[in-house]
Design a protein that fits this description.
Shape: globular
Strand order of the largest sheet: 5-6-4-7
Distance between the termini: 31 Å
Structural class: alpha+beta
Order of helices and strands: HEHHEEHEHEEHEHHHHH
Number of domains: 3
Strand content: 5-15%
Largest sheet: 4 strands, antiparallel
Number of helices: 11
Amino acid sequence: MATTPRSGAAGDSGTGRPKMLIMDVCGAYMRPLGGWFAIAKIVHLMNELGVDEAATRSALLRMRRKGLLEPENRPGARGLRLTGQALAALEDTDRRIFGPRHPAYLGDGWILVSFSVPEDQRSKRHVLRSQLSWLGFGNLSNGLWMAPRRMRDELEKTVEQLGFQQYVLMFEAQYTGFAELSSLVSEAWGLTELTTLYAEFVDWCAPVTERWKDVRHPSGAQVFIDYTLALYHWRKFPYLDPGLPKDLLPDDWVGHRAAELFFDLRNRLEPGAVEYVRRTCAT
């Protein structure tokens, strides 16, 4: 995955796209259809998404080296199966990208995180910063991060899994001044850039939703393409946006419209996309 959700957010080009799209294909289709696909079928599906065979095979090899896929051959077909590590990662991803998008309550306060890592272990600083970004924390200053208080349990779990408890201090807090909290939050989460990213998603997703609004049972390759690309474009937002209190967001916050479009498109297209992949991989 990208080092941070924001570093993988710009555009469709670059080396990250095949890997991220394959993860979407694995999570949305391979997992519910038995956890195994023939390699030739993965190549075919990725080609329909605009990724050539060489890039697909390279991404599959990287995923094998990371322990996310393992080879399993069946009569007449060389294939790959999701590992237990991959299944656990995909379940966690599902909770984030498909979970409720309720804003946090401002009165609940914040969780603050400070960390200090010795110079001879500075690589762990990078790991911590990356993990905090993926959890949706905003950066207040070097070594100081914040998020809505409801993120505490997820933070504790992550720090314990990393074994970094000795480097991290956590505080529950209420903000009392002196700068305007809305301005502080805007800077910590890069809301100007986030607004642009949401607006770009709306610009892409609105016409796709319009295409299918009068189709009772969407089916076929285009359904697969549209739904998979919607997942690809949407997946970064739950990591960039932890559900900030609505009191701190503009009244016309474009994130609400983006979420509405994505979940509407998911409801319309997911069944037809899964069925298309099932038929494709069965032939």
